[in-house]
Design goal:
The complex is a heterodimer of chains A (913) and B (596). Among the domains of chain A are: 138 residues, no CATH class; 96 residues. Chain A contains 42 helices and no strands. The longest helix of chain A is centred in the N-terminal third of the chain and has 28 residues. The chains are: A mainly alpha (913), B mainly alpha (596). Chain B: It comes from Digitaria exilis.
């Protein structure tokens, strides 16, 4: 027990040490900052007693003056950025601001900087700077242009103070940097993110070394000619330097020169955050090894910055490297545990997860196992995290863990028979109810607990996440009271779409609430100013904008906004808000409203693409393309698919790959290319993991498709067997929504195999499932099947069948796809035709209209079997009317489709699009 | 034979001189030490050196026996006893014929000889750049080497200075030796044109290693030692690049006698203790009084847990070489393990007076304070040692232990982690990490570390037991996994006997009484063999008695009951009752309820 007491004490003792290590230093002086200082001085020259000229000398108008002021303001704000612009870039930006004075400011700047060649020059430079802030003798305080407490004033004061506290060695280093800075005037300053990045990284060290060696060489030559150090470095100014590589080196000089200051740490963190966002957004764009090389580089430069290891963990995770990610995770938390200061300024969702100490490690470990599909290990890790965070009173971490557990439970299928946490700390006892709960009940309780905590602790992003999860839960599960006693406890066994809607709306509140969270800090770290500057540069230089990589995911509307400003809303918030729209689309898919699905998916794809991860964005595209396939036929869908594949390389996006296979399979089935269909089914089966309980959705889809292929091949008993086993799987994992469609499939199989009586109960069961889960479109389809079954029982039931069809028609015509509509039309026609009281000659339109509609739709779908049926019915109708010519025509069409179905030609075409 | 030794001596003598000429001080020191260490047949020196061990060998005769039983090495009587066997020991080792390498002629002092002399004096005074400058236009190989070496040293010096200048909150900045690129360029040209000697190759290897081109560095160093085998610095650089036995086996080394030193030392580093010991024993035949070999042998013995043996060698070493600091940290670890406080304090005092600013000295003092229970001071000295040498592996691990004592968990984790990052094969540090996390109530998290450590040291029962205890702990309760781990532990010589007992208990918990009985029985046998008794003994007896009664083997049950009567406590009463029942012929009645 004393050991535990020690843990707490030790941790407490560790904190001040780490805080001391950070050292609240000022900003570090870099050549870039010297340049900005000089510009500030130009902006606000040392006040002359009495000379109150506005605007000061080089400026032509107040507006001009103000524009420079604004520029300087953003420059000083963006000093937090990881990279500092090169002199060249600064000059370019300056030119964009100062187009009136014909670049006189630029010349002034370069000349000022290039005469700073000895330590004494630097002293004088800062002496002059001091004059900007202090009023000369005899002048009132109001004569000073620059308020010492303004942004610029504080910046200047920081610089002066930093210089004053600099050692002589530091000044020497600053001078050496300045020489390099002035020399690198014709290089681009982007951190290359290309494939050849790693080689550049390798060169980096060399370049750095050699350039410094050059300096030394020059220095020695200078000594030999008995000159003074300053001259020798001015000789250097003329010396040609290694261009690009040197500049690369410069990016890292930011942190290597004066790492004493906190600012450089901020800059590094900003860089790391940016990389983390990139990783999350599109892992495929980050090559595993070269990224690791960069990170290793950073690590040697700043071994105490352990976030680098976290990024390596993320990188390994994104590239599915289990061992490396595990190692890096442990390494990161081993090193960083005591250092809380690192997480104070969190920007992306990734970091505000790491709230505690080691419980954060467990949270990440659990997520890692979850990612790699080890649900049991993940649960062990999570339950340990719950325990530790309870022990350490880390409420926010607890809330996150609960959220993560519910995510896990929702994501990974687990049958009720598996005890999820095999320990006395299991969730069951935590909840305080003696009776064991089903997974779903546990999930609900957890979600609610997490929600409550998030609300109490004011964690809007978690709150939004929980609302989303709840919506997801409500979508697929019937909420029953946990404890119900007695006969009075009558419950309405239906899902509640209103709840889903409510939760979805609540989750988008994160957009307005994020200010209260730690998330808001991101708007203060200068990234906004940085992008402002970047855009400025883009505008002034068309060459750069031309070289922008087009494959990046951008909001499409950016194209309409010239110089579009980045959204001030941090991307994790946008992401959460965006997922609510994506979930809306999914919800409507279930509830069966095609226009709503399209609308929400479109909103997501247009408004949230900037922040979205590639997998989520591709999901939105998938939804849109699926809609196209159902409503516009395959050719339209394949056109869109080609576009999407260009946008998301198929290797990276499993969604797109799946979509392709889905559409191909559908088309093969419709065309009657059964071999191709079978082949695609097999591919589906291979895609899912062999581990039980993982990739449940994929496995179910594979089984469904297999059953349908078998059905199309008229192997009814096998199809029924597959569907039956599928039903029991769904039942085991409590997937009721899937069950509804499986039941319908079973009914379909029995209908086709002429076991009508056997089919009826399945259709009815499916219908009732659909009712309780509000699956309106599926219900309409079930009703239609029911009608067909009744019809098959004999013409005496035609009336009943007709009423069923009429009942489902509004839904089907409003929201159904081509196939469903055609089916409904055919059934309608069949009902009429088999009704003995109905005479075709009297009301031929009632039969022919729907049939014409159906043939039209089926032509688009290339669905031979049903098209043949439609033509057959048409022929009969014409026959009744004694329109022989039309009858022959329909019969010919019928024959055409039947031969196409029975002798499939060019099957391999079905794989191409 | 004498002539063989004479050749060794001649070679070493020349090597020490040549290395000294080139300012490769530590290699020269090593060669000279070894030169003195060669057994002199004619002089009486070896017999006097033999005196002390032979006097102590009588004392430790009993211990020797013990060592033999426990599978310890037979190395002692191979090289210790008297000069009688020395004639055999001197014969070529194990029938291996060595390739003789001619001693290269030194460049005769050419026209630049005086300048070289000046440069060397500058170098001796640590004025490296000046030395390099003097040799600017010299083309002799020796001059080129010294100039490059001086530049390298100058770069190193500047690097050290910069590391201090630019130290900050982010840790070490990327201070690098700025001469590396130029040196690499020059040396690679020399190598291509063939105008490089083995010393130049050594320097080239150093440069390449610093630049991170390890493979090439290895090749170059092999070239260097093949052409000039007496440069121990080159060998030890090569050793630091051999991180696994695969790498070692792929080296293309000429069969010189210096290779034996290299192999032995590398085996030690790779924890192949038996092989290392064998090599050193053979070398000991020739270099009888070499302090270096003795220290290495002692280190091997210490790593093989032959503490007494190692202690004796260290004591003798200190007697002959009282101002030695090298490897004395190992001696202090040994004394720590044996808890001999006085000896440790004596050692600490001695090294303190010799050179207190050696990392080894600081480590020894820290060990002393740790043994005294003054952990704060101990940490202080470990920190000092680490300041002197950031890569001092054992200091990190030991400091981790101290932090654990101080209950400063984050600091302990940090220290262990650094040890692991310096050498990922340090199973002690992995184990320490696991222990800390287990202490913090995170057994699942700790498992990762225990797994790592037992992977590195699969025959260490302690590691398996630690892992099993994690699995067994309240939050996890993964009994089956725990059983597997305990089985491993029981199979790998578990001296404390925890594994068997726990195995029995766990099987009992799972209701597998057959297995439980099997393990209880084994445990009993073990305890009997070690003549240990205690609660576990009683527990085992009681279980076995009950078990045999339940399965109807009354004879056995009676046997165990009678044995239980020798002990006091409630179990005795239970046994009495049980015996009564057994003898009265109503064994089937359940008496457990009354018993407890």
């Amino acid at each position: 027990m004393s050991l535990f007491a020690g843990v707490g004490g030790g941790a407490a003792a560790g904190e001040p040490a780490s805080a001391g290590g950070t050292g609240r230093a000022l900003l570090e002086l870099t050549p870039h900052k010297l340049a900005v200082c000089h510009l500030v001085q130009v902006f606000a020259p040392p006040a002359q007693a009495g000379g109150d000229v506005v605007p000061p000398s080089p400026f032509e108008s107040v507006a001009h003056h103000n524009r420079l002021g604004l520029f300087l303001f953003t420059l000083t704000r963006s000093c937090d950025d990881f990279r500092e612009p090169s002199l060249e870039e600064l000059l370019r930006q300056l030119k964009a601001v100062d187009d009136l004075t014909n670049g006189c400011l630029c010349e002034q700047l370069t000349s000022t900087l290039s005469v700073l060649i000895s330590p004494d020059d630097l002293f004088n430079f800062f002496d002059k700077l001091r004059g900007v802030l202090t009023a000369p003798e005899g002048a009132g305080a109001e004569d000073i242009l620059l308020d010492p407490n303004s942004q610029l004033g504080v910046f200047l004061r920081c610089c002066i103070l930093a210089f004053n506290s600099m050692t002589f060695e530091g000044i020497c280093h600053l001078l050496a940097d300045l020489v390099m800075y002035c020399n690198s005037t014709d290089t681009s300053y982007d951190l290359a993110e290309d494939e050849d990045f790693d080689t550049e990284m390798n060169n980096l060290m060399d370049a750095d070394i050699s350039s410094q060696a050059d300096i030394f060489e020059k220095y020695r030559q200078g000594r030999e000619s008995e000159s003074h150090m300053g001259e020798s470095s001015s000789a250097l100014t003329r010396a040609p330097m290694i261009l690009h590589d040197l500049d690369e080196a410069n990016t890292f000089k930011v942190d290597e020169d004066n790492p004493t200051s906190l600012r450089s740490r901020w800059q590094l963190e900003a860089y790391l955050n940016q990389q983390a966002d990139l990783l999350e957004k599109d892992p495929s764009s980050v090559p595993l090894n070269s990224f690791n090389a960069t990170m290793t580089q950073l690590q040697t430069l700043a071994p105490e910055l352990h976030r680098v290891q976290f990024l390596q963990y993320l990188n390994a995770l994104c590239h599915d490297d289990y061992i490396a990610s595990l190692d890096n995770l442990h390494r990161y938390f081993d090193y960083s545990a005591g250092m809380q200061g690192l997480f104070g300024r969190s920007v992306s969702a990734v970091q505000d997860v790491i709230v505690g100490k080691y419980e954060g490690a467990l949270l990440c470990l659990g997520n890692l196992h979850c990612h790699f599909g080890h649900p049991k290990k993940a649960l062990e890790a999570f339950s340990e995290a719950v325990r530790v965070s309870q022990m350490n009173n880390d409420d926010s971490c607890l809330a996150y863990v609960l959220g993560a557990i519910s995510n896990l439970l929702a994501k990974i299928g687990m049958s009720n028979t598996v005890g999820i946490v095999s320990s006395p700390y299991s969730l069951g006892t935590n909840i305080g109810l003696g009776t064991p709960l089903s997974i779903q009940q546990q999930l609900l309780v957890l979600l609610k607990r997490s929600l409550k905590r998030a609300d109490l602790l004011k964690l809007p992003s978690l709150l939004a996440f929980d609302h989303l999860s709840l919506a997801k839960f409500d979508l697929k599960n019937v909420q029953r009271p946990l404890v119900s006693f007695g006969p009075n406890a009558s419950t309405k066994l239906r899902t509640c779409p209103a709840d889903v809607c409510k939760n979805l709306r609540l989750s988008s509140r994160v957009l307005s609430d994020f200010g209260t969270d730690a998330l808001s800090t991101s708007s203060e770290n200068g990234s906004f100013s940085t992008s402002w500057l970047r855009n400025l540069a883009t505008a002034s230089d068309s060459r750069r904008s031309g070289s922008m990589r087009s494959t990046k995911l951008h909001n499409d509307f950016d194209n309409f906004h010239y110089l579009g400003q980045p959204s001030p809303i941090p991307s994790p918030v946008l992401q959460l808000a965006g997922s609510s729209y994506l979930l809306r689309a999914t919800a409507w898919e279930h509830y069966g409203s095609a226009p709503m699905v399209r609308m929400n998916a479109l909103i997501y794809a247009t408004c949230f693409a900037d922040a979205a991860s590639s997998s989520e964005l591709s999901l939105a595209y998938v939804k849109l393309i699926q809609q196209l396939a159902v409503f516009k036929g395959y050719s339209a869908a394949f056109c869109a698919l080609k576009l999407a594949e260009r946008k998301f390389p198929s290797s990276a996006s499993s969604h797109i790959q799946l979509l392709r296979m889905q559409i191909l399979h559908e088309r093969a089935l419709h065309r009657g290319h059964l071999k191709v269909a079978q082949q695609i089914c097999d591919e589906f089966g291979v895609l899912s993991s062999s581990v039980c309980g993982v990739d449940i959705e994929l496995k179910i889809e594979a089984s469904v498709r297999r059953a349908r292929t078998l059905l199309a091949a008229k192997q009814f008993s096998q199809a029924a067997a597959v569907a039956n086993s599928l039903f029991s799987t769904c039942y085991k994992y409590n997937l009721q929504v899937e069950n509804a469609s499986v039941l319908l499939l079973l009914a379909e199989i029995h209908k086709k195999s002429d076991n009508v009586v056997l089919g009826l109960p399945y259709a009815l069961a499916s219908q009732s499932f659909c009712k309780s889960f509000n699956l309106d479109l599926l219900e309409a389809s079930a009703t239609l099947t029911l009608a067909e079954l009744w019809l098959a029982l004999g013409s005496s039931h035609a009336k009943r069948a007709l009423s069923l069809v009429y009942q489902s028609l509004p839904m089907i015509l409003g929201h159904g796809g081509l196939e469903l509509r055609a089916r409904a039309h055919i059934v309608l026609a069949k009902c009429h035709l088999s009704d003995p009281k109905f005479s075709v000659t009297e009301d031929s339109e009632a039969v022919l209209d729907p049939l014409n509609q159906a043939t039209e739709d089926l032509r688009v779908l290339e669905y031979h079997e049903m098209a043949a049926e439609a033509y057959y019915l048409k022929a009969i109708a014409y026959n009744h009317q004694c329109k022989l010519e039309e009858r022959e025509e329909a019969a010919a069409c019928f024959r055409e489709h039947i031969t196409a179905l029975e002798n499939p030609r060019k099957e391999e075409d079905s794989l191409a699009y | 034979m004498a002539s063989a030794k004479e050749t060794y001596r001649a070679e070493l003598r020349a090597a020490a001189r040549q290395l000294g000429e080139r300012c490769l001080y530590s290699a020269a020191k090593w060669a000279a030490e070894l030169l003195v260490g060669v057994d002199l047949d004619t002089s009486p020196a070896p017999s006097s050196a033999m005196d002390s061990p032979s006097s102590s060998s009588a004392v430790s005769a009993g211990r020797l026996l013990h060592l033999h039983r426990s599978g310890g090495s037979s190395f002692r009587h191979r090289f210790r006893p008297g000069g009688a066997s020395s004639s055999e020991a001197g014969t070529p080792l194990g029938g291996v014929s060595y390739v003789s390498t001619p001693i290269p002629d030194d460049d005769a002092f050419d026209s630049g000889g005086d300048k070289y002399l000046l440069a060397k004096t500058y170098f001796d005074c640590r004025e490296y750049r000046r030395a390099a400058h003097v040799l600017q236009n010299q083309v002799g190989r020796k001059a080129v080497f010294l100039r490059c070496y001086a530049l390298y040293m100058a770069g190193e010096k500047r690097k050290e200075a910069e590391m201090v200048e630019m130290e900050g909150s982010l840790g070490k900045s990327n201070a690098v030796n700025q001469e590396l690129v130029a040196l690499e360029r020059e040396l690679s040209t020399h190598r291509r044109t063939g105008s490089i000697d083995s010393f130049g190759l050594y320097l080239y290897g150093l440069v390449l290693r610093d630049k991170g081109c390890e493979d090439l560095a290895r090749t170059i160093l092999v070239e260097s030692v093949n052409s000039y085998p007496w440069n121990w610095s080159a060998w030890s650089e090569l050793q630091s690049l051999c991180t696994s036995s695969d790498v070692l086996n792929n080296l293309n080394l000429k069969n010189h006698w210096m290779k034996d030193f290299f192999l032995a030392s590398t085996y030690l580093e790779l924890k192949m203790h038996e092989e290392a010991l064998k090599r050193y024993e053979r070398l000991m035949g020739i270099f009888r009084s070499s302090g270096y070999i003795q220290a290495q042998v002692a280190t091997v013995q210490y790593s093989m847990k032959d503490l007494d043996e190692a202690e004796m060698i260290f004591e003798e070493l200190l007697r002959t070489d009282p101002f030695r600091v090298d490897s004395m940290d190992i001696y202090s670890n040994l004394l720590y393990a044996k808890e001999s406080l006085t000896a440790l304090s004596f050692l600490a005092h001695r090294v303190f007076l010799t050179d207190k600013y050696r990392p080894e000295s600081c480590c020894i003092i820290a060990n002393y304070y740790s043994l005294k229970g003054q952990h704060e001071k101990s940490v202080l000295y470990f920190q000092r040692a680490l300041k002197l040498n950031r890569k001092y592996l054992s200091a990190w691990t030991l400091m981790g232990h101290e932090y654990v004592e101080l209950k400063n968990t984050p600091a302990a984790i940090d220290a262990y982690r650094r040890a692991v990052d310096i050498n990922p094969k340090d199973y002690r540090a992995w184990y320490g990490l696991g222990q800390i996390y287990e202490m913090m109530g995170m057994p699942f998290y700790a498992l990762y570390y225990f797994r790592k450590s037992s992977y590195l040291q699969p025959n260490d029962a302690r590691l398996w037991i630690a892992m099993a205890q994690c699995y067994e702990s309240d939050p996890l309760q993964m009994v089956e996994e725990a059983i597997k781990c305990y089985e491993r532990a029981a199979n790998s010589n578990d001296t404390e006997g925890i594994a068997l007992h726990q195995l029995a208990k766990l099987h009992d918990v799972l209701g597998q009484s057959e297995e439980a009985a099997y393990y209880y029985k084994k445990d009993l046998e073990r305890m009997e063999a070690e003549e240990r008794q205690g609660q576990n003994f009683v527990e085992a007896l009681l279980f076995l008695a009950k078990h045999y009664k339940n399965i109807g083997n009354f004879e056995e049950a009676e046997h165990y009951c009678t044995r239980l009567l020798d002990y006091t406590g409630p179990e005795k009463e239970t046994a009495k009752n049980m015996l009564k029942r057994l003898q009265s012929g109503f064994p089937s009645m359940d008496i457990d309820n009354f018993a407890l």
